[in-house]
Amino acid sequence: MTLKEIRKLKWSGKREYYRIEQGLYVEVLKNKKVYRLITKKNGKQIKATLGNFDEKTLTDVKKLKDRILVAIKDMDYNKATEYIRKELGIRESKKDKELKSKKVKENEKFLLKNIIQEFLQTRTKQEQNRIRNYIIKLLGDKDVREITKIDIIDFFKKVRELNVNPKKTTYLTNKMATIKRLKNNLNLFYKFLYLQFDIEHNPISNLTMKDIENLLGEKYKVTHFKATTNLNDIQELYKKICELKTDKDVNVNTHKTTSIYTKYALMFLMLTALRNGTLRRLEWEMIDWNKKVINIPGAITKTKKDFRLPLTDEMLKILKELEKINKKQKGLIFKGRNNNMMSENTLNVKIKKLSNNKTTAHGIRSAFATILKEQGENPLFVEEQLMHIVENKVGQAYTRTDYLVQRRKLLKKWESLITVKTQKEEQKSKITFSF
């Protein structure tokens, strides 16, 4: 449409649009003619006023229209409308401001540093520190729905260079171990997002440790835990644990005392050979006092299978003592500070110290397996108590027993073996007292 044709257009009693060229129209109103930009983005129409017919030349309007269309070519609807407003000096309407504010708040909700807070409360203190020091610090300002595999790989590269605690050399010498833990944390976090917010996006789902090793050019070194299989060492360790002075014994919490929960957790760990992580997550509701078992759900076991832990007299004695403190019998059996979950290092550090660095918490499991097998006990019952998968999938499908009766006898024997020195000390103290 030419300028001459535009001049001839008359008001027909209703508002009408006439196409001048692609994206540019003239609207005829009762008292004036107005140039309009009309285009589409993401299936939505964008309409903007470029100027009045009497105030702007057709050449200038065409140039303005072309400049805008080129600028917004690769933009989505929201960015395009925002750009056009700024270009034309149009003030945002109240409704547009409210929508924009609402969208900003919605986007902020999905920033990793904000949405991860609820997930953070479900992790141990050590995991929380790791998540804060690395994941939130390096990925916190990103939208969890838009994080890509490239972002994750860049994240791991930065983790290798980042030193959050210069005093601890393990952060420098075994960074791949930290990366492996962070990978697991991110995997669990995205599972949480799927369950809580129906976010199916998971940029780490198909990324294996081998992939990460190849990308970083560094291998994950397996650190073998220390373990003693000497029965005398294990007996001495249990004796030292039983002799620990607790905050309840002296009625005050000092650096020279141990938490009552830590002491009983250490004893329980040695008597059951449970994994550190499983033991720390045991709850009162799992105990069946009548059948003398703890029904451990698969959610807190490494194998992800339900497990029945038979209780011996010594274990029941520990639980009864803790019952006096936790009369409501709710929540965690072995609590950490402020009634939260005990740190994964609490038991490990204590066992290392008491054993003169001969064993770790996980090392107790090695001692349990080695000593009992040397004593002639059935390896199948030993491995079942350790929650090891000893059969193939076909065998597991046909085996319908967890050897509860046999494992109860096994644990009673283990109890009698490791408590020998403790019992002798108790007898001596009774004799001394009688004199």
Keywords:
single chain, Double Stranded RNA Binding Domain, DNA polymerase, domain 1, hpI Integrase, Chain A, four-stranded antiparallel beta sheet, three-stranded antiparallel beta sheet, 7 strands, 53% helix, 9% strand, DNA-binding, Phage_Integrase, DNA binding
Name of the CATH first level of the largest domain: Mainly Alpha
Q: Would you tell me which CATH topology of the largest domain applies?
A: hpI Integrase, Chain A
The topology string of helices and strands comes to HEEEEHHHHHHHHHHHHEEEHHHHHHH
Task: Report the biggest beta sheet as strand number plus sense, adding barrel if it closes.
Answer: 4 strands, antiparallel
InterPro entries: CB, DNA_brk_join_enz, Integrase-like_cat_sf, Integrase_catalytic, Integrase_DNA-bd_sf, Integrase_recombinase_N, Phage_Integrase
Domain Tyr recombinase: 223-411
GO molecular function: DNA binding
Protein name: Integrase
